[in-house]
Every structure is written in structure tokens, then in C-alpha cells.
Hints:
73% of the residues lie in helices and 0% in strands. It is mostly helical and 97 residues long. α2 (26-38) packs antiparallel against α3.
Amino acid sequence: xxxxxxxxxxxxxxxxxxxxxxxxxxxxxxxxxxxxxxxxxxxxxxxxxxxxxxxxxxxxxxxxxxxxxxxxxxxxxxxxxxxxxxxxxxxxxxxxx
Length: 97
């Protein structure tokens, strides 16, 4: 077991509470997604990233991380699209993914 898992679990619980009380807070959805991804909950992370992007369509790191999740799930076309968008929004390293 990853020794950091309890930290990510606790953080994900706190971010879940935050997004339930402040559903338009894109960064909270983004941080929730990161915690879920670190726990191996890729589908849930994808859903949280979708929410983050819905609330803040120019949140470049959300596209980048969603691209990574898509790759992990085998969704190549979606990953390419997300990396391209994150590159357009300023994350130049996206183009090397």
C-alpha cells in the first residue's frame, strides 16, 4: 500500500465536501480529481476534471491531467484532444505527450 494513500483519501474527502458546497469552484474539482487519480480512481477523477473544465474552460492543467487520465483509460483520441487544448492554453510540454 502506498504510504501517501491515506493523505490523498483524506484530502479527497475534504475536496468532495468543498465541491458539494461550492460546485462552481473549478480548482476544488481539479484538486479533487488529482487526489482521486493518485488513489487510482481514474473514472471518478475524469468526472471531477470534466466538472473543473465545465466551470473554467481555460484551466489548462485540467485539460493536461484529463489527457493523462484518458491515456490511462486507453482513450487515445480524447487524450490527444486534451493535450492539444492544454498546449493552446500555455502548457507547451503538452505537445510532447
